[in-house]
Amino acid sequence: RPDTCFVSPDVIRRRFAAAMSAMYRDEVPLYTTLRDIVAEVNEAITGEPDAAVERHGAIRVGTPAEMRAIARLFAVMGMHPVGYYDLTPVGVPVHSTAFRPVTAEGLAINPFRVFTSLLRLELIEDAALRAAAETILAGRTIVSAETLALVDRAEAQGGLDEAQAEAFVAGALEVFRWHGTARVDGETYARLLGSHRLVADVVAFGGPHINHLTPHTHDIDRVQAEMAARGLPHKASIEGPPRRRTAILLRQTSFSALAEPFVPAGADPASEPLRHTARFGEVEQRGAALTPRGRALYDQCLATLRNEGTSPDEAFAAFPDDFVTLRRNGLAYARYVATGTSGGATDLEEALDRGLIVAEPILYEDFLPVSAAGIFRSNLADDDYSASTQASSQAELEAAIGRAILDPFALYQAIEDASREAALAHLRGSVA
Ligand code: OOG
Ligand code: NI
């Protein structure tokens, strides 16, 4: 079959992300308010209409088999596992990856990615509860047989045609829908909640409901101020680096999760519903991707920040705040672009000095474990936290996913290398 009758995975992802956004706005009205704020702030900055397009969302799954099904589902949409995040040292019993597009073209068509966490059931201390949770999870199917059949189809034939893609998007959406009815009774819900709020969130319901969506803003401080002005219950502080002239990595804030009514299994529908707190809305602002060296310096600054009495600006004073220095010192990746002028330079630095090539930041497309912990934490009860000493296991998560997790640093390095080669080749071409 010729490829031309297949809808591109990037287009399927774009349709899916739009459908997910519409569903979430409908399910969580406060999210519509947040999205409106983001659109207004962005428009005020760029002078262009802004759709507040979602950059990411997050889900949590309960078993390796669920992780595998989700990974196959995302692959149909051109989303691949990038980065390993172990959240257990910061007291959240999960390890995670982000399913995201990996090419510049894919990101440009639609940047949606999903931070996906696998619950580490072995961290439930109460053996009886752990066994009960395992049994409950073993009995659920998160992707319908029809949708899985479409995934099989996509894998076998190398894509989906228009009608199949439409059915796939509709089926995929169902996986992430909120279930107002729990699969467990009120007493079991309470026991799961007592173990960790996250355990209740993953185990008690019919599937991995999307727990937040996150549009991108050009000015997160302004969005935060606007949330406060409109009385949205927001996170006390923005995660990530402080505000800087040259944005680095990722800054995030969110409104607090709502206590939503649900009916436990076996309950009289006329009785008072229980409430579950899980779903929220988030905003992100992204900056330059850092090299391993830059990232080490970032982590060092964060550690300084944890010392009492140190302000964010003081803690980050050691971090250069202009892109020229960030690049020269090997702290940030660069994309090299030939300016079109011919000049005979063959050395990169010389070409940069003479303006024949310009260096620009590569946008960070991944997540930050400490920030992610802060986002989890702001939406869970404080007493849920006890850091675990459980060894982190990327291999275990990869076994669940069924393939290797891609290394984000290697992806950025490849973009930088390819751009350098292309820019230098362009100069050589101009000389000839
Ligand atoms: C995921 C939290 C991590 C982020 O933006 O860092 C995250 C979750 O709450 O399931 O989405
Ligand atoms: Ni998030």
TrEMBL record:
Q: Which domain of life is it from?
A: Bacteria
Could you tell me the EC number(s) of this protein? Answer: 1.13.11.93
Q: Name the UniProt key words of this record, in alphabetical order.
A: Dioxygenase, Iron, Oxidoreductase
The cofactor named in the record is: Fe(2+)
Q: What Gene3D superfamilies does this protein map onto?
A: Uncharacterised protein PF07063, DUF1338 (3.10.180.80)
MF terms in GO: dioxygenase activity
What is the similarity comment for this entry?
Belongs to the 2-oxoadipate dioxygenase/decarboxylase family.
Query: What name has this protein been given in UniProt?
Result: 2-oxoadipate dioxygenase/decarboxylase
